[in-house]
Specification:
Elements lengths: L7 H14 L6 H25 L13 H31 L10 E10 L4 E2 L9 E14 L2 E15 L10 E10 L8 E8 L1 E4 L3 H17 L4 H12 L7 H9 L10 H17 L4 H19 L3 H18 L7 H14 L7 H24 L5 H24 L2 E2 L3 H28 L1 H7 L1 H18 L6 E2 L3 H21 L4 H32 L4 E5 L8 E5 L2 E5 L5 H11 L4 E6 L4 H4 L9 E6 L5 H12 L3 E4 L5 E4 L2 E7 L14 E5 L4 E3 L5 H9 L8 E3 L10 H7 L3 E4 L12 H9 L3 E4 H4 L2 E4 L16 E4 L5
Parallel strand pairs: 4-6, 12-13, 13-14, 14-15, 19-20, 20-21, 21-22
Antiparallel strand pairs: 1-3, 1-5, 2-3, 3-4, 5-6, 5-7, 8-9, 10-11, 10-23, 11-12, 16-17, 17-18, 18-19, 23-24
Helix pairs in contact: 1-3, 1-10, 2-3, 3-10, 4-5, 4-8, 4-13, 4-14, 5-13, 5-15, 6-15, 7-8, 7-9, 7-13, 8-9, 9-10, 9-11, 11-12, 12-13, 12-16, 13-14, 13-15, 16-17, 21-22
């Protein structure tokens, strides 16, 4: 163990140094010089210690210097590793972020030449555009503004329009004009390029990259006709293209700890290389031939699946193992892992801030350090083969959990059984998927038939994810990610201590193990209790629920088992979570007031779940495409214009605005809906003051119980309208620290003057409004009693 860990300190030093120094570009030269000087000084000390260890004449008292010499050598290597990282940053910074280009927060217009470095994905298209808009990772080669051309090697994310997204192959050279915006230092990208007009492909990829694109295309064609989750996961697991995985399946994979199986990971590299070496051995090839074939296969595989951080880590580690083995030296365990960390962070120090890289390294370290001890412990309770199978996901999960909590403060209790069932299938998909890739090039017709073989284990993985994600308490959220990560780190440390001290310090091991178990039980109990308390606290008889989805609108109405949803917020994930908390599966009536992203961006959360959609007037091709998606999902689309009406359980609803044949678009064309029945509620969308006054002039407004305040509480409001409706409650759907100053003091003062009590999602979270049963002596003319519940206490 001591020998295995000698490179741990250099790897950790390289990582910490890279993590800090990439965010402090001005300090890099000084840090590099200081570290190299420190390494040289320690090297001198080490040489002096070695001289002290040389044989001396008999009779002299020679001190033992070897242990000190080893320790000093480790310190020297540690400083050298940190210095290498700093030197790499210093060497790359001038090209990665040239001084002539904008700094963080600034922008510059110009023309760019870029080389595509990753797979393109669909991006929201600008209004009125008939072309596809994509986002694609690339490397900026030159940027020209005016007569000044700047040469660079900057990672950039490009948003541009193209006629054919398939032309954006990895390695292709693009020419685009647009706005170059710098992002904060230290990230995986230096700039964002927002293209104006269409990008032009000026050079095709070289043959050494283009072959991989041809294989990927052939594979996608081979599996195109396969059904369901199996097809979606298959392209990710086999060739690293996870663009086909739906948001719903991604969420299920995340909630069951199977996210690493949505695309190629480090484990796939090991499976592929191991298979090649084993097949070579079965064919009688010499060890040297097998290892060379393994290296060649590894290179081709990385090019095929694209060099994601986890793949790079596994490929580098595998290369070290194969090369050292080829030289006739033993190579196993932790040293190749630690050395691969130092090598990769020297080549690309910005990997230090990659969550994928961190999880890959931690998972591998957990497997190498913890699997055998955990299997030995579990072997006391179960058969040895089962103990080893259980120990593998437990070891990886223990090592990764602190980082997972930092990324998302939630516990996924079914991760271990889900991985236990899914991991063997992932290995089968990797091997069989590559076979389909080869057939796709040689015999496309045969490949389509053979694609069913990897589809079976791929579909099994999807079924496992959906099964466990549908169980109670599939996700247990924590309120504080830093606290959760600290507890996970303490538990990991306790486990390592118990394993290391189990034989020599049994009493201490029992005490630490007992304390660790108590911490886990209490933490999970508190988190689970919080979920139960929150779900149980939502009043069962609510009629209106304003979801806390950030800066946007998403309000649910429910009556007699029927459900309406007014707008869907900016992103699908918060809306999905809110609907799940409220127990909403199906939406009878969807109202999309207008097409700003903060009102329609979350539409993916409801596609396929809507019966009828009342929609505002579209304004361009992007709006039409969104409506087409709703239509394809089974929704019946109806134009939301004045006079349209219907029923929702015991509630009636009617559209008050806009007028038929209106030429208005955007905010002032917001579909305004009035719900009447046990209570009256008015939903104003984002109507501005002039449109609100025009609505008042129609004479269709009277007093209401609840008003959904327009435009998140902006100042663009009509005193006449709010005075006319004199609502008792005003719901303001608004995001925390939204940057717009919403809700404004003017709006809040206006509500106060009209006797409307404001309830805000930014301070209260989820808000529900219920109508308790009327008192026996209540008059029919009395307004209904209203009961308001909120997720958080008022500040």
């Amino acid at each position: 163990m001591r020998g295995d860990l000698r490179l741990a300190l250099p790897a950790a030093a390289a990582w910490v140094t890279a993590l800090v120094i990439v965010g402090l570009p001005d300090s890099v030269p000084w840090a590099a010089a200081g570290l190299w000087m420190g390494a040289a000084l320690v090297l001198v000390v080490m040489l002096l210690l070695r001289r002290r260890d040389e044989p001396r004449p008999e009779g002299l008292d020679v001190p033992e210097g070897r242990p000190a010499g080893v320790a000093v050598a480790i310190v020297a290597v540690t400083l050298a590793a940190a210095a290498l990282v700093c030197t790499s940053v210093a060497a790359q910074n001038p090209r990665r972020h040239p001084a002539e280009l904008p700094v963080a927060g600034d922008s510059m217009m110009g023309s760019a030449v870029l080389r595509v470095t990753g797979l393109s994905e669909a991006a929201p298209a600008p209004f009125g555009s008939a072309r596809s808009r994509v986002q694609v990772p690339a490397e900026l080669a030159t940027f020209t503004t005016g007569n000044v051309e700047t040469v660079a090697r900057s990672p950039v994310l490009v948003f541009t329009e193209v006629d054919d997204p398939e032309s954006l192959r990895i390695g292709a050279v693009l020419a685009a004009r647009g706005t170059l915006t710098a992002v904060e230092s230290g990230g995986s990208r230096e700039f964002l390029l927002f293209g104006r007009g269409e990008a032009e492909v000026v050079a095709a990829p070289g043959w050494w990259l283009d072959w991989a694109d041809q294989v990927r295309r052939s594979f996608r064609a081979s599996v195109e006709s396969l059904p369901g989750d199996g097809r979606e996961l298959l392209t990710g697991l086999a060739i690293g293209d996870d663009r086909q995985v739906s948001d719903e399946l991604t969420e299920a994979m995340t909630n069951t700890g199977l996210t690493h199986l949505t695309a190629v990971s480090g484990a796939n590299c090991a499976v592929v290389v191991g298979t090649v070496v084993l097949v070579g051995g079965a064919l009688g090839a010499s060890r040297r031939v097998r290892l060379v074939c393994g290296l060649a296969t590894l290179v081709l595989f990385v090019v095929l699946v694209t060099p994601e951080p986890s793949v790079l880590r596994a490929a580098t580690m595998a290369t070290i193992v194969l090369v050292v083995t080829l030289l006739g030296r033993p190579a196993a365990g932790l040293p190749p892992l630690f050395l691969s960390v130092v090598v990769l962070l020297t080549v690309d120090p910005w990997l230090s801030r990659s969550a994928g890289f961190a999880l890959s390294v931690l998972a591998t370290a957990g497997l190498l350090l913890l699997t055998r001890p955990l299997a030995a412990l579990a072997g006391r309770l179960m058969p040895r083969w089962l103990a080893l199978a259980v120990a593998v996901p437990v070891a990886a999960q223990l090592a990764c959990q602190p980082v997972l909590f930092l990324l998302s403060p939630q516990l996924t209790p079914y991760t271990v059984p889900a991985n236990l069932l899914a991991e063997p299938a992932a290995a089968a998909v990797s091997v069989l998927g590559l076979g389909v890739c080869l057939l796709g090039v040689l015999a496309p017709g045969l490949a389509s038939a053979a694609a069913w073989l990897p589809w079976v284990p791929s579909a099994w993985i999807g079924a496992v994810a959906r099964f466990f994600a549908g169980l109670p308490f599939a996700v247990v959220p924590f309120a504080d990610s830093l606290l959760a990560a600290s507890v996970a780190l303490a538990v990991l440390g306790a486990v390592v201590f118990c394993i290391a001290a189990a034989r020599r310090h049994r009493s201490a091991t029992r005490a630490v193990a007992g304390g660790c178990a108590a911490v886990v039980v209490v933490s999970v109990g508190l988190a689970t209790g919080g979920v139960i308390a929150r779900d149980g606290a939502i009043p069962p008889g609510w009629m209106i629920a304003a979801c806390d989805i950030g800066q946007g609108d998403a309000v649910v109405l429910r009556s007699a088992g029927s459900v309406a949803l007014v707008d869907v917020g900016p992103e699908p994930e918060p809306l999905e979570e809110c609907l799940a908390d409220l127990g909403i599966e199906r939406i009878d009536l969807l109202v999309l007031t207008h097409y700003d992203r903060d009102h329609v961006g979350g539409v993916d959360a409801v596609i396929g779940r809507v019966s009828t959609a009342v929609v505002g007037p579209p304004d361009g091709a992007a709006d039409d495409r969104l409506l087409d998606r709703l239509d394809e999902g089974g929704a019946h689309l109806v134009d939301g214009v004045g006079g349209l009406h219907g029923e929702l359980g015991a509630l009636g609803w009617s559209v008050l605005w806009p007028q038929p044949h209106t030429r208005l678009r955007g905010n002032d064309a917001s579909v305004t809906v009035l719900f009447t029945g046990p209570l009256t509620a008015l939903f104003l969308g984002d109507l501005g003051e002039s449109a609100q006054n025009a609505l008042v002039a129609t004479g269709s407004l009277g007093r209401v119980d609840v008003v959904k305040v327009s435009h998140h509480g902006s100042a663009d409001q009509s005193d006449r309208l709010y005075t006319r409706v004199s609502a008792r409650l005003g719901l303001i759907s608004v995001g925390t620290d939204n940057g717009y100053g919403h809700p404004t003091d003017r709006l809040l003062s206006l509500l106060a003057r009209t006797g409307t009590q404001a309830f805000r999602t930014d301070t209260l979270g989820l808000i529900t409004v219920s109508v308790p049963p009327a008192a026996p002596d209540a008059s029919a003319a009395d307004p209904p009693a209203l009961s308001v519940w909120s997720e958080h206490r008022p500040p």
